[in-house]
Design a protein that fits this description.
Blueprint: H1 4-11, H2 17-27, H3 37-44, E1 49-51, E2 59-63, E3 70-71, H4 75-86, E4 100-103, E5 109-115, H5 119-128, E6 145-146, H6 161-171, E7 186-188, E8 203-212, E9 215-224, E10 237-243, H7 246-263, H8 274-281, H9 283-294, E11 304-305, E12 327-330, E13 336-339, E14 346-348, H10 349-362, E15 367-369, E16 375-380, H11 385-389, H12 393-396, H13 403-407, E17 408-410, H14 425-438, E18 450-453, E19 467-476, E20 479-488, E21 500-507, H15 511-525, H16 532-539, H17 541-547, H18 574-582
Parallel strand pairs: 6-7, 7-8, 17-18, 18-19
Antiparallel strand pairs: 1-2, 2-5, 3-15, 4-5, 4-14, 8-9, 8-11, 9-10, 12-13, 13-16, 15-16, 19-20, 20-21
Domain Nitrite/sulphite reductase 4Fe-4S: 138-294, 406-547
Pfam family, one: NIR_SIR
InterPro entries: NIR_SIR_4Fe-4S, NiRdtase/SiRdtase_haem-b_fer, Nit/Sulf_reduc_fer-like_dom_sf, NO2/SO3_Rdtase_4Fe4S_dom, NO2/SO3_Rdtase_4Fe4S_sf, NO2/SO3_Rdtase_FeS/sirohaem_BS
Length: 584
């Protein structure tokens, strides 16, 4: 029997939902009958419109979409202006103030504190600049990820941006495929570093070569069924398929999308993700059915991986290759791109607008987003680099961050998410400064990947980090407080591994001390040149557990309490805050 949400989607979903959102926006959120809100808000997600957490019932988040994080000239400015004009909440964040944009781990952007009545005006402003929120959420194909410097990378192995653009236009744009069993992630990368993280996507294409008709050709190998979350992460499995051209790559991915769309589990949502589908069917059965019913050419067996070293978030030494896109890098055409480190991926509206101005002044105006919540300024001529790097904004969002800021990712947390158990962004921003000021890192270590997810859904990709944090709750001194599980040793790469959880339900005020003890042990006991992931593997989980010592420190934050019980973690007067939220 199909789930309740499947019944709602079968009645109305996809493009048709847009008209209903506009109707409700004209009448106001109160026009949505109370007993029908779950149904409508489930449908709204396809258009990137999410009601915020309980207590923020009159406010919405909007997630935007693109192909591979590419923001064309003018688009970031339009997004920043929307945030400035429409994304102001009733209470300021103590760390970030009011009105901002959040950069995500899928090369996308989220806006918060939007009112339903303003959604049509927000769409009008964004769509005039070519920015869309269609298919940005819900049970559909989400933002397609890839190498953010596709087409500019001087070491690109296989061209991928035209294929990504076609997936965006022809596959994600197909309303007949809008209603998937659950959310579905596609990645394509033709680079040598592996920055699309193919192994944690529902379907991923990675660069390969194969001899075809006596000639060695480059193309992609296909992997399926990867994903994180619910403490049941999976590495995508090899489908044993090689595709040598854009047309066949498109057809194979489309075929798997259609196969999952038709045969995926729609009865039990907890088992509906493609990773469970691949578990149950197996790659051989999926490949056979793909060949028989979904593609009209003979599938070739997998080719040879042509990456020398998979280095992006792989726990490899920096000498092996790039592990992110931060810094100044030469493009294939002789210009440069400059990757900035935005702490926890949050840009104020004014910073976003200023960044767009800087992109215009020093480069082509194009900005690209990475899977590590960072922006790239593209197409900067060499003669303009020094002036660009001297811009005051690049002192704040720097291309030369300290190792803690450079490696850290944080999800939305209890500030807006109903699933999260802890506040994430503001706490992490302050923790980064505390770690910078109190913990020494070896000179040859440029980054430590610390990923913080406010719950086990793992939007912050904690499973893939050097140090992964899951939001929890725990008792301390007789009170319920925010807490975290601590894991170590995760990473993507030729040999993907997920973190081993070494400490559970550590009160939030003891976590910075625990991280400090881990990093200090790493610095003292590592072999020369050893990365954190390599050190964890060498030491073993049991030993590393002993090194991870939770303790109170002088770290302070104004939100150590159990914020899950508050409508907003930073609201001081609960009664006044409730009145503010419901006054609309």
């Amino acid at each position: 029997m199909a789930s309740k949400k499947e019944a709602w989607k079968s009645e109305l979903y996809g493009d048709e939902v847009r008209e209903k959102i506009e109707e409700f926006a004209e009448k106001g959120v109160d026009a949505i009958p109370e007993e029908e809100r779950d149904k409508w808000f489930t449908r709204f997600k396809f258009w990137g419109v999410f009601q915020q957490r309980t207590g923020q019932d009159s406010y919405f988040m909007m997630r935007l979409t693109n192909a591979n994080g590419v923001l064309e000239p003018g688009q970031l400015r339009a997004i920043g202006e929307v945030a400035r004009d429409y994304a102001s909440g009733p209470v300021e964040n103590p760390e970030f103030g009011d009105a901002w944009v959040d950069l995500t781990t899928r090369q996308s952007i989220q806006l918060h504190w939007l009112e339903l009545e303003d959604i049509p005006a927000v769409w009008e402003k964004l769509e005039a600049a070519g920015v869309s929120s269609r298919s940005a959420g819900g049970d559909t194909m989400r933002n397609i990820t890839g190498c953010p410097v596709a087409g500019r990378d001087k070491h690109e192995l296989v061209e991928s941006q035209p294929l990504l653009d076609r997936f965006q236009a022809d596959l994600r744009g197909n309303d007949a495929l809008s209603n998937m069993p659950r959310k579905f992630n596609i990645s394509v990368t033709g680079c040598r570093e592996g920055c699309a993280q193919d192994s944690i996507n529902d379907v991923g294409l990675e660069p390969a070569k194969k001899e075809v008709d006596g000639e060695t050709v480059t193309g992609f190998n296909v992997r399926v069924g990867g994903g994180l979350g619910s403490r049941k992460p999976r590495v995508a499995r090899d489908l044993d398929v090689f595709v040598a051209d854009e047309e066949r790559a498109y057809e194979v991915v489309r075929g798997f999308v259609e196969l999952y769309h038709e045969h995926g589990n729609r009865d039990v949502r907890a088992r509906a993700r493609s990773r469970f589908f691949v578990d149950e069917w197996g790659t051989e059965k999926i490949r056979d059915l793909l060949q028989e019913e979904y593609v009209d050419f003979e599938l070739r067996s997998a080719g040879e991986n042509i990456r020398d070293e998979y280095t992006y978030n792989a726990g490899r030494p920096e000498s092996a290759g790039k592990h992110d896109h931060v810094g100044v890098h030469e493009q294939a055409d002789g210009d440069y791109y400059v990757g900035l480190s935005v702490a926890v991926g949050r840009l104020t509206a004014s910073d976003a607008i200023e960044l767009a101005d800087i992109a215009d002044e020093y480069g082509s105006g194009e900005v690209r987003l990475t899977r590590r919540q960072n922006p790239l300024l593209m197409d900067v001529p060499e003669e303009k680099l020094d002036d660009l790097l001297a811009e005051p904004l690049l002192g704040k969002h720097t291309p030369v961050p300290n190792p803690f800021q450079r490696g850290t990712v944080a999800c939305t947390g209890t500030e807006f998410c109903s699933l999260a158990l802890t506040e994430t962004k503001a706490r992490t921003a302050r923790m980064l400064r505390w770690l910078r000021d109190n913990v020494d890192v070896p000179d040859d270590v440029s980054q430590l990947k610390i990923h913080y997810s406010g719950c086990t859904a793992d939007c912050g990709q904690a499973n893939t980090a050097d140090i992964g944090l899951f939001g929890m709750r725990a008792q301390k001194d007789g009170e319920m407080v925010e807490a975290m599980d601590i894991g170590v040793g995760g990473g993507i790469g030729e040999d993907p591994s997920f973190v081993e959880w070494v400490r559970q339900r550590i009160p939030a005020d003891e976590v910075p001390g625990a991280i400090a003890s881990l990093v200090e042990a790493f610095a003292e006991r590592r072999e020369p040149g050893q990365t954190f992931r390599e050190w964890v593997e060498a030491e073993g989980t049991e030993a590393v557990t002993e090194y991870c010592v939770p303790e109170e420190t002088d770290f302070e934050a104004p939100y150590m309490h159990d914020a899950k019980q508050s409508w907003y973690p930073f609201a001081e007067d609960e009664a006044q805050s409730e009145q503010t939220v419901t006054s609309d």
